[in-house]
Amino acid sequence: MSNRAPEYDFYSSVDERRSEVSGYIRDFLAAQTSVKVLDRSACERALSAVYQLNSMKAPSIVWCRSVFELTGLALSWSAMGNISFITDTSHAGSKFERQWQQLAVSCAAQIVAPRISVKRPAGEVSRRNVLSESRQVYGVFKQSVDQLAKRLSQTNFPSGGLGGLALITHEFNKLRSGTDLNTIVRQRNLIEISATRDIMQDLWPVLLNEANLAELDSQARIVAQSTPWFDVDFCLWISSWEMFDVLPFLVVLDVFSDFALQAYDESTRRLLAVWRDLSLTGCWFLFFPGICFVCEPPEKIVTDRFGVLHNENGPGIAFGDGYGQFFWNGRPVERHVVENPQSITVREIEQEVNAEIRRILIERYGLSRYILDSGAQKVHEDDSGVLYRKELVNDEPLVVVMVRNSTPEADGSFKNYFLRVPPEVETAKEAVAWTFRMSSDLYAPKVET
Fold first, then answer.
1. Cβ-based burial of 56 (10 A; exposed 0-12, middle 13-18, buried ≥19)
2. Between the CA of residue 50 and those of 73, 243, 267, 279, what are the distances in Å?
3. What is the SS3 assignment for 9?
4. What's the pLDDT band for 1 if we cut at 50, 70, 90?
5. Position 216 pLDDT exceeds 70
6. At what angle do helices 266-279 and 40-53 cross, to 10 degrees?
7. In the beta sheet, which residues pair with residue 293?
8. Going by DSSP bridges, is the β-strand pair 398-404/416-421 parallel, antiparallel, or unpaired?
9. Where do the DSSP E strands lie in 230-296?
């Protein structure tokens, strides 16, 4: 009679602990946009391990308090070899003047410190190699994650392993296809893009002049001025998205550790743990040979009930150096759109090329004000109301019906309401009928007295 213990059934174990699996995945993804005090020592260990496991020397770390500072320090250092010129460059009048001053202090305290020994040869500056070193390191890390995912997919699991992994993947994909995961990815990306554009408004003209690129012909200059924020954004994006192909296997490592000892060899477990530890920091990174720029998590994040960045009273995300970004329903907007909507003008609305931002501007300006102030065309009028039409660039026409409330206000006046309707509506009666989900033929309100 055999005394051998029964074989561990991984499939049944996962099935019984589905809620724990889903909770782990949610917690992992939430760490990508968390507000917390960073454990710098843990972050340093994770970074050193990632570099060393990819046959690179552990980097010196430059700590940054915001994505603005991260982008400014890293891009300047990459393009110039040293960034002392920041302290000699005036950004007076810039809306980020305070951040530039703090960035210069951070630069003096960290970059020029003796421990940062990474130097670039003089005369090496050109538009083509700006951030190219970071792209190379990023490529090494991406290949590392891809190879890890491939190795994991070829794992020979013990009893119930493949079925259990299929259940984990199913739970993961439910989140991946839902709003939770998409929101996290999209918002993190928007934060990065907004920061790089903010910094480039002030920094890139300086870089062009310092790097003797001011003599470029007009077409080359346009290319040069439009390239860097895409480079920066490309290099920043190494966090949660790169882990998605590995995440189902990571659940096995942490939630089913006993089974992981059977399923993964020691090298695989170590690689998984290293990438997990780096991703759980919630930081943004710009990787270079010998040096890494790290942005600590923000101090404040404000979202709506759907988890989308949105704040009607201030920045949607705020960092330790005072840099913040304003969001309205998940879209980045300028500060005055949130805090001083009275300053929005018809000209600003009509010069906005992004249709989504234009709609936000109209919402904050006021639909009725915009229709009346922008010279919208009155296309029809009858007893039901007045129909207006306003043509918009890169968007469908704005068609609005003005109706009068039959109930008087306290002062005896009658209030007008402006209701947006589909652009194919042609008459005021048809527009009002549409708001009641009726055709104009069926819409016949009683005469009110």
1. middle
2. 22, 13, 13, 11
3. coil
4. very low
5. no
6. 140
7. 62, 286
8. antiparallel
9. 284-288, 291-295
pTM > 0.90: no
Farthest CA pair distance, the chain: 97
Name the residue with tokens 């882990």: 243
Strands (E), 356-408: 377-382, 385-390, 398-404
Which residues are within 8 A (CB) of 198 and not within 5 positions of it... i.e. 6 or more apart? Answer: 68, 96
Using one digit for the tens of pLDDT, what is the confidence trace for 351-372? 998 999 999 999 999 999 999 9
Domain ranges of the chain: 10-297, 302-332, 346-435
276 pLDDT band (50/70/90 cuts)? Answer: confident
Question: What single-letter amino acid sits at 302?
Answer: V
- Run of H or E including 325: strand 324-328
Structure tokens at 433: 């009928």
Q: Which residues pair with 292 in a beta bridge?
A: 61, 287
111 DSSP assignment: I
Q: Lay out the sheet containing 300-301: strands in order across.
A: 300-301, 317-318, 324-328, 331-333
How does residue 441 score in pLDDT terms, banded at 50, 70 and 90? confident
Output the six-digit token pair for 273: 């743990």
